[in-house]
């Protein structure tokens, strides 16, 4: 009788993920497990603060007005007496957690008022705790496509110093809408089984990050298969064999010692690390589900599938040595098509809808005037 030959392992391009596995990649789900290995962060659960409905109402309204009292690192002085305030606002539509008449309508010249006092206070707490600057995210996603909306600082993008900075980013971002949409967050099947994702605002201590030391790492079937540099520029110091080996050793060690046994999102996931200057240790920046919406950067998901299948092939006599895992990819030449991209990141997302709508039928000077007025009215809220 012929001896059966072991079957080659077969994997799908993407694993099937449960809602629980996708939820494991929320910052709130992994942050406390890995607290010593990641940057300080505060998670604000909007339903616990009683403002989830009001927050969604504000975020989804097609107005650019920011919640009242959100500007500045400190709460605004309570200089307006209740009588003055009610007189000043009685003519304006209101958006409180219960009011639904606050539609912002661009047709109305009145500025709608949105109130999120608990959220304002929580953001100010985080600012105070973290030395004056925070990096905001929702459940899984940061508003990095909206970085252009804040003035550039030497500190880096998404540098928020007031609640209004946080709101401005969230309001201008398309990326964060992924976290609010059940089907996009959980996929068609899992999404239909449960309600809308609960909304958490994550405020991380703002760190001075050197993108040259960020890597993205891929785990399939509980094997660390690939690592790629995260920022797609050519970096001289990553080129030496010694540095590459050091990075792979550091990533493998951290994954084996800390992540493999403790991460709760199943056998397939992707995580991002920030390496120390000498590449000998690392901090965790983020986890994400193993799915198409996570950018594979210098890999393609087909390549990652090949690597996985080779890694799990049954041993054969004629076996040539298998590649040592993880496979590490960097940009090896200044001429690489991805290197030194001149276009600003996420330029396709650089125009909030309101800007486009306001621009219609106006020349540049009129548009600027209308925009400045709208922003001033929003900030004055
Ligand atoms: N605490 C922080 N302080 C300053 N910058 C940060 C901080 N955390 C992350 N960053 C920077 O912002 C970038 C995006 O952050 P992060 O990976 O958390 O966003 P994301 O929305 O999850 O991105 P992706 O969609 O690629 O997973 C990081 O690559 C890093 O350069
Ligand atoms: Mg992420």
UniProtKB/TrEMBL annotation:
Positions of region (Disordered): 67-112
Comp. bias intervals (Low complexity): 80-112
Signal peptide: none
Originating species: Kwoniella shandongensis
Pfam families: D123
Name of the protein in question: Cell division cycle protein 123
Family: Belongs to the CDC123 family.
Record GO cellular component, one term: cytoplasm
InterPro entries: CDC123
